[in-house]
């Protein structure tokens, strides 16, 4: 499976997603590692097995083994952190001042440049809707030398990958429902 096969699976009503996937795959504002890692981390966060496999097949070879592992780790750790910190932010009270007591060692030693790992964490946080995490990671990447255009590009990738996953899930559900009704 490849990016082109995913684009081919998208229905006509999702033509904008097809076009955006194509243009973002060569987004010039991000370097190859930043772009590829954002696609990988965003695919994992979007929870569609077919899309994840296709985007890792497409973008994984553009990453060193360490960077591929770091992109996967960003999706994993932010999957946990986004839930926890979204809770503390939304509920408020004493929770925000209590220690998290969750292991987050990979954030200290991600195996790639810290700014790239933080960019991937920001993209995943955008997908998962954690405002507190998005603000924190955006501040770190800007302080690390990335531009607002680079942040925007990563979030655009996250948005399109997530929308693609949702569309594929919907199409699969509709196809399964049609088959179930026909049977």
From TrEMBL:
PANTHER family: ALKYL HYDROPEROXIDE REDUCTASE AHPD. Belongs to the AhpD family. This is Alkyl hydroperoxide reductase AhpD. Pfam families: CMD. Disulfide bonds join 130-133. Antioxidant protein with alkyl hydroperoxidase activity. Required for the reduction of the AhpC active site cysteine residues and for the regeneration of the AhpC enzyme activity. Keywords: Antioxidant, Disulfide bond, Oxidoreductase, Peroxidase, Redox-active center. The active site is at residues 130, 133. The gene is ahpD. It catalyses: N(6)-[(R)-dihydrolipoyl]-L-lysyl-[lipoyl-carrier protein] + a hydroperoxide = N(6)-[(R)-lipoyl]-L-lysyl-[lipoyl-carrier protein] + an alcohol + H2O. Residues 94-174 form the Carboxymuconolactone decarboxylase-like domain. The keyword Oxidoreductase applies. Its EC number is 1.11.1.28.
